[in-house]
Amino acid sequence: ELVSCPGAFPKISNIADEKHPFIEGEFRLAMNRPENCPAPAPAAMGPMGAPSATLHYNDVDNAQKTRLGLFNFTYAGMRIADLGNPQKPVEVAYFRPGDFCTGHVRYNQKTGQIWLTCFESGFWVIELAPEVARAIRTK
User: How far is Cα 28 from Cα 6, in angstroms, rounded to an integer?
Assistant: First the structure.
């Protein structure tokens, strides 16, 4: 968490058997692959040494029946992944306000709102585009 490139990324844990949890999948952005890391340059230094897409907290839409991963990827913004197949999560939406986004994310199931915070731009309330929300519900 909060490390320079390639950064940290979510690992999808299966806890169906709480005595034997295991990592079932992971969600990486292209910039979370070592071969895509830029060389650090003093002019591009961020709080972690170089701009990166590192994860600070993982959240989900519903702890009992998880469908979406809600991942605040610092400078890469909020990334939303369909976890219907936890072995191969798929990014379905993102929101990138341009500053450092961290903190827990809340998903309101009644309204479909996603609440998040970013360092400079503050508190955001976002929603999935209707066609994305429909596609996820019908899977």
Answer: 10
Q: What is the pTM of this model?
A: 0.81
C-alpha 126/C-alpha 102 separation (Å) is 15
How much is the CA Rg of the chain, to the nearest whole Å? Answer: 15
Which tens digit of pLDDT belongs to each residue from 31-50? 878 888 777 655 444 555 55
The secondary element (H helix, E strand) that includes residue 118 is: strand 113-118
* Spatial separation of the C-alpha atoms in residues 33 and 117, rounded to whole Å: 26
Measured CA to CA in angstroms, residue 51 lies from 60, 72, 89, 117, 126 at distances of 25, 15, 24, 18, 24
Q: How far is CA 48 from the centre of its chain?
A: 18
User: What does the DSSP 8-state code read for residue 86?
Assistant: T
